[in-house]
Amino acid sequence: MTDEEVRMIAEQYEIDLSKLEGSGPGGEVTLEDLERYIKEHFYPKVLREVKLIGIRKVIAGRLSESYREAVHVTINMEVEMDGLVEMRKKLTEKLGRKPSYTVLMLKCMAKAIRDFIDVNATMDGDKITVYDDININVAIDSPIGLITPVIRNVDEKSLEELLDEYSDLVERTKKGLLKEKDFVGGTFTVTNLGMLEVDSFTPIINPPQVAILGLNRIAEKPVVRNGEIKKARVMTLSLSFDHRAIDGAPAARFLGRVKHYLENPEEVFGDL
């Protein structure tokens, strides 16, 4: 690979080659040096790798034979959003700007993923890789269609950092300014069709990931509380997962944890 090609790759990741210690002649940065740096700084840190064996391998093999690729299963769950709506008002006063629902829900999701880390994974053949870093791909509509750039370490970043990063991603997406670094290293995907008045849909898994969460519109509906009919803001969560890697019960428990944090946002953002 030529110096020009190395430079072009570095540009895609906004890497200053002069600051890298090269192993080539005269300290020149080689392709191997650059790949090592990219892997360390842009790809998720592996928590563990699990080899499919026994029953799980048998199940995966049979399902693969039937579908020849990821076995998509989607489950839906209603969540009451009044708590998050009120939290958004409080955060608007505190921050001096109105945080998007997508970012607020990203923060709640990341906390749930940390609790159920097995959904934060990819699958390649009979190997499932579970990641420690929670890097969430966010589906964004662009002039060339729906694309999914990544926000890294969502659980570790402050709300202000996430708001800035999400705003920057959306702006660069609209202008066609995304680079390769914006797409690598994702471990879970979120897609939001709520702004398009969608009540429920079946998200398609972003391979090689094993799960994707769909967000829908927030609508006022009657709900029953303590035997009485009340009005509440309700949203449906749509989780698609690869049944070769995740069973229905743990997927439902994960979705239930997302529901819990959305309905109890003070556990995520504090009691303002």
From TrEMBL:
GO cellular component: cytoplasm
Keywords per UniProt: Acyltransferase, Transferase
Domain 2-oxoacid dehydrogenase acyltransferase catalytic: 48-269
Gene Ontology molecular function, alphabetical: acetyltransferase activity; lipoic acid binding
Cross-referenced Pfam families: 2-oxoacid_dh, E3_binding
Domain Peripheral subunit-binding (PSBD): 6-35
Cofactor requirements of the protein: (R)-lipoate
PANTHER family associated with the record: DIHYDROLIPOAMIDE ACETYLTRANSFERASE COMPONENT OF PYRUVATE DEHYDROGENASE COMPLEX, LIPOAMIDE ACYLTRANSFERASE COMPONENT OF BRANCHED-CHAIN ALPHA-KETO ACID DEHYDROGENASE COMPLEX, MITOCHONDRIAL
Family, as annotated: Belongs to the 2-oxoacid dehydrogenase family.
Protein name, as recorded: Dihydrolipoyllysine acetyltransferase
Source organism: Thermococcus radiotolerans
Taxon lineage: Archaea, Methanobacteriati, Methanobacteriota, Thermococci, Thermococcales
